């Protein structure tokens, strides 16, 4: 590159774009043409540094509470209360042991069961629905889609009392299957809308080509369409997992002991005798861990996105 | 190997006023290459998709080898299709794409590989068998789409504008390759295009469609020499045939000041139909540029130089029927005239085409009409 000052710069794409044009200009003509370019480049670079600093600041502001939670989880209760708060402490696993001993394991298992089963149900019901609503549209497709969306318009608080009465009458209070049904119903509209947008990207000719090649509809969907939309399905599944795992309102109202989920059990650490910051942090860290791991695992698929190379 | 017959086959889209394909009747011989051509919305793609089983046959029927295809799903028709956007399976490699149909048929892996490699060699794709379609150029993707069709050795090839996504040079090259490949394989082929040059150069016979209706189904040269109506006349040939209104006189038809003579039996036909004016069709390549006064006098509006030839766009100097009777002539000379200059256009070899002013139907003398037959 022509400008040695730029060679180490990786912060801004606009800065990196210019040297090619700049070198052409330099070889072609005199200095009075190149100077304004260099000045412009320096200006770009300054802006890039400012943006980078701002971005880091914003990221830190958002990440700090999470970091503090994780740090606090490794403190003794005494160290968690110091004023001013301290970053230097002797770490311990005591809080995690206490949390696990207090029976949080059962609630984590309940959460995991409700999450996995409801997400599976959502995918089993949602994938065919999204397929039909995108690749096989009929006259009332728009109305059906609106109906799905409309189920999300009523606030859950407004239905909790009748819901409680119904669940009580059919004897499903404090039963994990109640939550599974509710979570499936809660996530299904979002999942269908999300997956539909991925299915819409699939050209209809692919299905036609597969059927000309002698594939049945099921084979065509399984071998041709699903590999294409799998990143979209992964993204949808992740959203469903997060929503179900973190769901609090249904769980706190419709479960008690047997079917209690992790978010509800966390509240148990906020008691009348006082807050147990370190223990609450340890429990929260444990509860957040599965979602973080799921996001990490799905990340590759999510980022890869949809690549429809066969089209044009 | 198959014969195809459309028998008054129609396709009606829901909510549409007119059928997309209206009582189409066509017979395709075994091993023939036929081209369906027409402007957009003419129903040519729909007609092809009806054959492929991707569109319902609402009335009439289509037979392959005499077997009725109504209600037969496309996967059971043994037809291979090349799509406009190729529709390659993005998640599969080139080899998997080409072998997919064989796999569906239960051909063992070794045999599949052999057939795919054979087809790949034919299409110069051997080096790309393990690549995904996204890593191929447009021309290579087009060849993979062709390969996917030929590997199967189907009864019929359907091709839906397979060249329209290629650049002009590659299109000409691929055009000849496809035509040669089809001759070699001898597979009955139905090819859809909106490009009349493709239609003329590739097809054994060409079906011209407009608004879902078949206009004419004939060999390319016959379409050129004896178009059955003004639409076919204007569609086939480049630059398009000049279709201009003219008065009927006792010797022929009058354009501006000059008269183009007609044969006696054609004049008789005009008089029998009591027509005082007709639409006259003059091919640009039949118009010769001559000095003013020696032909139809026109004033030059534009000259397009193509190097090997030039197109002269002009309008009639003495125009009684209005100011905008325009004519295009093709000249083999460079700079046949300057802008605004008045020149003459002489009608050279070949006959003048005469069409009914309202219906656009071709008007011939007795023995001519017997030869051309009815295409509408």
TrEMBL record, chain A:
Coiled-coil region: none
Membrane topology annotation: Multi-pass membrane protein
Chain ranges passing through the membrane: 47-71, 112-133, 145-164, 176-195, 224-245, 276-298
Sequence ranges assigned to domain ABC transmembrane type-1 in this UniProt record: 108-298
CDD domains noted in UniProt: TM_PBP2
Gene3D superfamilies linked to this entry: MetI-like
Keyword tags: Cell membrane, Membrane, Transmembrane, Transmembrane helix, Transport
Entry's localization field: Cell membrane
InterPro entries: BP-dep_ABC_trans_perm (IPR050901), MetI-like (IPR000515), MetI-like_sf (IPR035906)
GO CC annotation, single: plasma membrane
GO biological process: transmembrane transport
Signal peptide: none
Top-level taxonomic group: Bacteria
Region (Disordered): 1-40
Family of this protein: Belongs to the binding-protein-dependent transport system permease family.
PANTHER family from the UniProt entry: ABC TRANSPORTER PERMEASE PROTEIN, MALTOSE TRANSPORT SYSTEM PERMEASE-RELATED
Name used for this protein in its record: Carbohydrate ABC transporter membrane protein 2 (CUT1 family)
Organism: Halopolyspora algeriensis
Lineage of the species this protein comes from: Bacteria, Bacillati, Actinomycetota, Actinomycetes, Actinomycetes incertae sedis
From TrEMBL, chain B:
Database matches in Pfam families: ABC_tran, OB_MalK
Record's protein name: Carbohydrate ABC transporter ATP-binding protein (CUT1 family)
PROSITE patterns in UniProt: ABC_TRANSPORTER_1, ABC_TRANSPORTER_2
Matching SMART domains: AAA (SM00382)
Domain of life: Bacteria
Entry's Gene Ontology molecular function annotations: ABC-type transporter activity; ATP binding; ATP hydrolysis activity
One GO-annotated biological process of the protein: carbohydrate transport
Keyword line: ATP-binding, Nucleotide-binding, Transport
CDD domains reported for this sequence: ABC_MalK_N
Limits of the ABC transporter domain: 6-236
GO CC aspect terms: ATP-binding cassette (ABC) transporter complex, substrate-binding subunit-containing
